[in-house]
Amino acid sequence: MQQKKRFNTTFWLLIVPVLLWLVVLIVLPHLDLLISSFQVKNSAGENVFSLNNYLAFFNNDIYWGTFLKTAGYAVFVTLLAFVISFPVAFYLTKVISKKYAGLLVLLLLIPLWVGELVTVYGWMILLGDHGVINHFLLFLGMIDKPINMLYTDLSMVIGLLYMSMLFMVVPIMTTLESLDDAYIEAASDLGAGKWTIFTKIIIPYSMPGIISGAIIVFMLVIGDFLAPDILGGKHSLWFTEQIYSKFLQTFNWGEGAAFGFLLLFLSSAIVWLALKLSGQKLEKVGS
Amino acid sequence: MDTILEIKKLSKHFADFTSVDGIDFSVEEGGFFSILGPSGCGKTTLLRMISGFEEESEGEILIRGKSMKGVPPEQRPVNIVFQSLALFPMMNVKENVAFGLKRKKLQKNVIDHKVAQMLGRVGLSGFERKKVTELSGGQRQRVAIARSLVMEPSILLLDEPLGALDRKLREHMKIELKLLQKELGTTFIYITHDQSEALVMSDKIAVMNKGRFEQVDTPRELYKNPKTAFVASFVGESNRFEIIHKEGDVLTTKGQWKLTKSGLDFTPVVLYIRPEAFILSPTEERKDISVFEVTIKTVLFDGANTKLSTFAQGSDDEILISLPQNAHFEDLCEGDTIQVGVHQDDLKCYEEE
Questions:
Q1: Residue B71 contacts by C-beta under 8 Å, 6 or more apart in sequence?
Q2: Nearest CB to B74 within list A192, A204, A205
Q3: How far apart are alpha carbons B292 and B279 in whole angstroms?
Q4: B103 vs A180: CB contact, 8 Å cut-off?
């Protein structure tokens, strides 16, 4: 009995903070948003149940058009992040010695320390009409007038890529670290060339890492606000900006909440689809 | 029989040490050849040079008379079973075995047929769709061997593939590997630090130490007539005695034990005697036998491998003596004194360590 009681005390001590966190900080605000997403004010100014907030999304092609564009760019940035991150992760885990790898990973982390806003401003300095890159190209005589890079989709993609890439590198590094070099030698011994080893052994082996990196990058990018807002300019409308304007510019909290949930469900659906298509399981990817 | 592999003056130097130091040997077609040596003796480097993963510093490797210089691993007619087995974890048994055949761009039905046949040979029919992570240690072993053998290599290289198995399975796999090799007729080159594996399976064994071969011989010869002190100590169990004095035919050990050995034309520094070379209570007066009395310190009971730890009278050299398994010696116990003889041919003397 004594034993059981002690166990219960510990059990509650451990579970209460978790439950408080989940209920107070996650479940309650979301419930509140969920309720307001299904409410509109009638002529008397009372809140009544309605699906209009959700219908607004599907009836207005600006909204779902923005969502499609956002999702498309998020997928694109995720693919780019993979293409750039994989060689980086491979280099850090399999090519150079452990001693230097630690230092280089530390360097990769620096953008995280200074925060997204600072890195975004950093890119503004680099990409602006009178920025470092244009200045340099003009100086070399490769161009006669500045190229417009800032406030375009290009600058937005660069910003999104820059802030999310590390979250692709780290999970891939983790899976590659567990890749026994003997697999590569065994494949080579069985007659496989470099390309076959890469596509048949290394990529399939690191698939869990790639997919978990891809999910994180995709979610970060699709839900990002700073990079599209500051670097993207007027034409690069991002779905989070729509939500922002609903809440803070038109004060239409109902539609804002509905759009928030649509973002959540639609992006989750895309992740689910990607998992199905790649044949990976969420539990395996998560570990 | 034809020579399938010929190694000429092969060396491998690394920045700060020499791993393989001018080795010459050849392997006959269809044989089971083992390279036995302690860890760090260079045997894995030697194997990696044969398979092409390591480039030789000097010397030449010939397979069926063809030089392997500059031939990459994927093009050599050898396949290797890795110490870690290196089964591809994301593939099932069939995909693992078919991996090499697919690289040869064979037709699908040919691949299916070959894989099925090979899995049948190693006793894994019906395991095609199993994940390699679901197999037992012995089954994984067999998949690794099947994956290499299905490529029909001239030589199969095995890098301590039994190391990771538990003792019982290892004993079983030893016999199974030997039978498989006999049945298939493929030349096996087997690397191990376990002398029992080498003795049981091999047609020929090379004992390797510090980058050189100490002796290349049949298991029986290696055990009966070790040519160097290293072979005597590494292969099988032996009593080791340091010799400090030689007068005529009488050798004196460090522990003041005197033994007679005639016909020695050098002064030995070390002497090895196998525990089973001792004859307990030698009845008749046999020729060339030194007879002495020993006192039993302890009986080390281990079934058929039971040994007596003893001291020769008037010396402090510990001598391990195998206890013959018959009722006659069953009652021997601590403190007993017994007559023991040893034939002088069983005294293995060496000039240097």
A1: B52
A2: A192
A3: 11
A4: no
Cα separation, A108 vs A126, in Å, equals 19
pLDDT category at A284 given cuts 50, 70, 90 is low
Q: If DSSP codes are grouped into helix, strand and coil, which group holds residue A233?
A: coil
pLDDT, mean of residues B1-12: 91
Residues B175, B179: Cα–Cα separation, whole Å? 6
Question: Which listed CATH number (3.40.430.10, 3.40.50.150, 3.40.50.300, 3.40.50.2300) goes with B3-233?
Answer: 3.40.50.300
Determine the pLDDT at residue A1.
Answer: 47
> Where along chain B do its domains lie?
3-233, 237-350
User: What is the CATH class of A51-286?
Assistant: mainly alpha
For an interface test with B, the pick among A190, A206, A210, A278 (most B C-beta atoms closer than 10 Å) comes out as A190
Close Cβ partners of B198 (under 8 Å, ≥ 6 residues apart):
B34, B36, B190, B192, B205, B219
A203 contacts chain B (CB < 8 A): no
What is the distance between the alpha carbons of residues A216 and B349, in angstroms, rounded to a whole number?
A: 71
Hey, is the C-beta of A190 within 8 angstroms of any chain B C-beta?
Answer: yes
Among A74-83, A100-109, B283-292, which stretch is predicted with the lowest mean pLDDT? B283-292
Q: Which residues 224-263 of A have a C-beta within 8 angstroms of B?
A: none
Contacts of B86 in chain A (CB under 8 A): 180, 182-183, 185-186
Beta-strand pair B337-343/B258-260: unpaired
Q: Chain B within 8 Å of A137 (Cβ-Cβ)?
A: no
What is the CATH code for B237-350?
2.40.50.140
Q: What is the pLDDT of residues A170-205, one digit of tens each?
A: 999 999 999 999 999 999 999 999 999 999 999 999
Q: Of chain B residues 145-204, which have a CB less than 8 A from chain A?
A: 147-148, 151
